Amino acid sequence: MSSTETQLSSNFIRHLITKDISNNKNNGKVITRFPPEPNGYLHIGHAKSICLNFGMAAEYNGDCNLRFDDTNPEKESIEFMESIERDVQWLGFKWANKYHASDYFEQLYDYAVQLIRDGNAYVDSLNAEQIREYRGTLTEPGKESPDRSRSIEDNLALFAGMRNGEYADGQFVLRAKIDMASPNINMRDPALYRIKRIHHQRTGSDWCLYPMYDFTHCLSDAIENITHSLCTLEFEAHRPLYDWVLDKLQTPSHPQQIEFARLQLEYTIVSKRKLAQLVNENHVNGWDDPRMPTIAGMRRAGYTPSSIRDFCERIGITKKDSWIEMAVLENCIREDLNENAPRAMAVLKPLRLVIENYPDDQAEILEVSNHPQKPELGNRKIPFSKVILIEQDDFAEIPPPKFKRLIAGGEVRLRSSYVIKCNEIIKDEAGNIIELRCSYDPDTLGKKPEGRKVKGVIHWVSEQQSLPAELRLYDRLFNVANPDSEENFLDAINPDSLEILTDCRVEASLAEASSGDRFQFERTGYFCVDSVDSTAKKLVFNRTVTLRDTWAK
Ligand code: ATP
Ligand code: MG
Questions:
Q1: Which is the closest atom of ligand 1 to the Cα of 35?
Q2: Can you give the C-alpha Rg of the chain in angstroms?
Q3: Is the CB of 33 under 6 A from ligand 1?
Q4: How remote is the C-alpha of 513 from its chain's centroid?
């Protein structure tokens, strides 16, 4: 773990696990699991859950399983499973075992049969709409289905028939027999199985009935001997059902479900369904678009695994929902890159500058340190020559007040190089500035100029030796703090979330940069080599984050 990571702070789950261990509960063992549904790519909210589950297991010398909760085949795919495995590993975690809820389909079926045998479940012929009607409301109790009193033998026969494909989709469901008057609506005879003829990515057409989440999850936990089943707060009202199922059945263990607050992050969306909509409707360029809050998107943008782990530690684990500012996440990567990314120079919108008193055929190589505070990151070579490129914005013919960069007749230092003076402005017929004629002071390399102060420092590259590059300036995808509060979250998309600059020039040393390498482009921002589109001929860089928070009020 990098030095930028904060000290582990205390949280209520750590507290609780420590207590369980001191009481020798579960023989002092800690086994957790991260249970994603493979219906999309993982996002920053999942990172919180991953860091918690894998982190707790690691801290207490326990195990954490990766379990795919693959019980809704219509939205799930192998592509999503593979992306999830890649992302968990990239974040720096190793699962003890990889499981799938579908590994347990046969066992789950047997458990369901046992519930029926014990009079704790029944086959119901009410359709979805009727079930909703019979369920009652928060203020009114529900009504019992006429099928609730069906005999155990009939239920067993019907359930076997459901498995054997004798009935149509939706014709029957298996329901737990609990309490239609329970104040907790989840306890009003929840559905445990539904008939659905659909191909499953792992079990093919073996099954035409699939178990529901509330039945599958607790039993999968129990089969794996999970000790602490950590989940988000919306499952708090499902805990009585979790415990009911495990109490009614003889299972290898009875895990404890503990809820914590979901991550809610400003200026973004953490819902796979909505992220899928952004992808499917082409509002972004795929799940790994650098603007996406997915792990894949953040990786492509240039986030480091340690910056994400650091973020998850900083936000902590609580029982209360709250909103986290985007600046907290951005500061984690900014601090990491400020400390670890080598510096380089890139000119986004080049302006040609000719140094008239520099010999035509001369080219010198400047030795420049890669990081001002870290000599251990070494030096690089930067060619300097008669024609260089600077940023159009770093010259002003009519300077605004306090302009510290280059002006007509003024002096400025070229970063890590000489002081130059602008003598003449060359314009085209339309009046656009196309070139600056300058002179340099040969006595200013690594030295202050004699008898005068030069305040401004600007970045530059040599025209001849620099390399063409495309820079993609990504910004926040949404321009309101809570896009979900809009009538349609798509209306909150920031129209300026991507600016592509295709005529940039970067310093020659970047010829060696490879996919994913991260840099601070001096005065410009933190960038990384795009892992998809960058080639040796045309480098493509993604802006990971700006140098400073430009969104702060
Ligand atoms: P989504 O609504 O984005 O699909 P989900 O909860 O349905 O989220 P799962 O794949 O079921 O997604 O989640 C796997 C695990 O990650 C669960 O334990 C879930 O509680 C946790 N998780 C999902 N979103 C968040 C979040 N925003 N903050 C913390 N944990 C989360
Ligand atoms: Mg889910």
A1: 14
A2: 31
A3: no
A4: 24
Integer Cα distance of 513 and 529 in angstroms: 7
Q: Are 377 and 369 in contact (CB under 8 A)?
A: yes
For strand 411-414 and strand 457-458, is the pairing parallel, antiparallel, or unpaired? parallel
Helices (H), 254-386: 272-280, 295-301, 305-315, 326-340
**Active site includes 262?**
yes
Q: Is 273 helix (H, G, I), strand (E, B) or coil?
A: helix
Q: Which residues contact 21 (CB under 8 A, 6 or more apart)?
A: 28, 30, 60
Query: Which superfamily, per CATH, for 3-262?
Result: HUPs (3.40.50.620)
**Is the CB of residue 45 below 6 angstroms from any atom belonging to ligand 1?**
yes
67 C-beta closer than 6 A to ligand 1: no
pLDDT band at 552 (very low <50, low <70, confident <90, very high): confident
For residue 22, count other CB atoms closer than 10 A to its CB: 9
Tokens matching residue 329: 């996440």
End-to-end CA distance of the chain: 33
For residue range 249-273, list pLDDT tens digits in order: 999 999 999 999 999 999 999 999 9
Both tokens of 7, joined, read 């000290």
Cα-flanking dihedrals φ and ψ of residue 65, to 5°? Answer: -95, 150
Amino acid 175 reads R
> What's the DSSP call for residue 425?
E
Cα 471 from Cα 530, distance rounded (Å)? 10
Evaluate whether the domain defined by 341-553 bears CATH number 2.40.240.10: yes
CA distance 32 to 35: 10
- What is the rounded CA–CA span in Å between residue 294 and residue 290? 8
Note the pLDDT of residue 414. 97
What pLDDT band is residue 8 in, cutting at 50, 70 and 90?
low
Active site annotation includes 356 = no
Two domains, one topology: 3-262 and 341-553? no
Tell me how crowded residue 38 is: count the other CB atoms within 10 A of its CB: 25
Domain boundaries of the chain, sorted by first residue: 3-262, 341-553
Rounded Cα gap, residues 503 and 391, in angstroms: 12
